[in-house]
Amino acid sequence: MFQRLRADIDCILERDPAARSRFEVLTCYPGLHALILHRRAHWCWTHGLKWLGRFISLVSRFLTGIEIHPGAVIGKRVFFDHAMGTVVGETAEIGDGCTIYQGVTLGGTSLYKGAKRHPTLGQNVVVSAGAKVLGGFLVGDGAKIGSNAVVIKPVPAGATAVGIPARIIASKEGASADATPEQKFTAYGVTQEDDPVSQALRGLISSASGQEHQIALLWKAIETLSATRPQTDCTPDCVPVDAQRQECFEAERLNQLVGK
Length: 260
Known about the structure:
Elements: H1 2-15, H2 22-28, H3 30-46, H4 50-64, E1 67-68, E2 73-74, E3 79-80, E4 87-88, E5 93-94, E6 99-100, E7 105-107, E8 120-121, E9 126-127, E10 132-134, E11 138-139, E12 144-145, E13 150-151, E14 160-162, E15 167-169, H5 196-228, H6 251-257
Parallel strand pairs: 1-4, 2-5, 3-6, 4-7, 5-8, 6-9, 7-10, 8-11, 9-12, 10-13, 12-14
Antiparallel strand pairs: 14-15
Helix pairs in contact: 3-4
């Protein structure tokens, strides 16, 4: 028991730069308190003491602001960061090393008792603030759920889900979608590169800028050819007055607007 508690405290020290000591984490982190109380409630639930398990869960909700059903299964080194208003349903499963932020709901969409109604999170999943993961499906290892995303379908391992309803961004070379060699853990789960709308807009801006560059080069080439030909072959009106010889597409400014 104490070894598992030490591991839970150490994972908080690793992921939260505001944590200064084990004593501070043990006494001042409601996410850790919620985990400790949930393990007592889960033991009661699995040993036939259903009411006592629910009562401990209610006390935990009152003390920490985190509601975890006693039937939920939670792995090791799970960090509920802030996590006020977080709700974890009865058949939810949270794998080792997961990080869950405030306002998260691991909810169900089915009303059938005994069925798998709530999601299963693999290992090292990050569920960011305000996200809703609804349904009895799997979120793969190392996946990221963006802030306020509403996830209603499975998320592959290493992928990132953002938006309402969530869009799936595939992993990069088998790694987490927002992982870099210098940074293994990203707070709140999603980096700027994980916004598919801004990625699409940047692609369109780049394409439009390239086309304008090519058009300007073509008009310059036509103007050069017209100037070198004999006067009888080409009149001065061969090149239109309004021909675009200079680039004026502000690609850099537009990229800044969409969050480059």
